[in-house]
Amino acid sequence: MNPDEDGPGSVFEQLWTPYRMAYIRGENKPTGDHDCPFCLIPAMSDEDGLVVARGETVFAVLNLYPYNAGHLMVVPYRHVPDYTDLTVAEVAELGAFTQTAMRTVRAVSGAHGFNIGMNQGSVAGAGIADHLHQHAVPRWGGDTNFMPVLGLTRVLPQVLRETRGLLADAWPATGPAA
Fold first, then answer.
1. pLDDT per residue as tens digits for the range 13-42
2. Has 119 been labeled as part of a binding site?
3. Is 63 annotated as ligand-binding?
4. CA 149 to chain centre
5. Residue 131: active-site member
6. Class (C level, CATH) for 19-170
7. Nearest C-alpha neighbor of 132 from the set 167, 77, 80, 63
């Protein structure tokens, strides 16, 4: 067999990530609030929903398709599509939860930095455009390597349930802004 070909006897190792295919194909993409994952997650147990912390108006949840280990989202309970739809209380708690998410991920994993943001609308890249959510993506020096660039694959060193447990245990019990 030609060693440049991908297959048995190849010089290339393979990293299989079959769970990503569901995301790529858009399977189970919500069509309304009746099947919106961000509306369904709060009714699940924290472990099943990958919920790290719950507040009065928002909750922190691990991204099921993370860009990096510890990729959290802060999500309002209300099914609203746009940042301007949030109440003053929701904006305040979303900000406080984002700060706590950053502190908690830093304490657990030593993240060097973060990408914080939200994509407003499908044209802006929102995967679930009808339910606002803010991403908190931890970053480390050198975390952009050949795998995502050449292999279109991210290497995550931990399963999501383990990450959720570590972050939930480290999340301050005194409230989101602690």
1. 555 666 556 655 655 565 555 789 999 999
2. no
3. yes
4. 20
5. no
6. alpha beta
7. 80
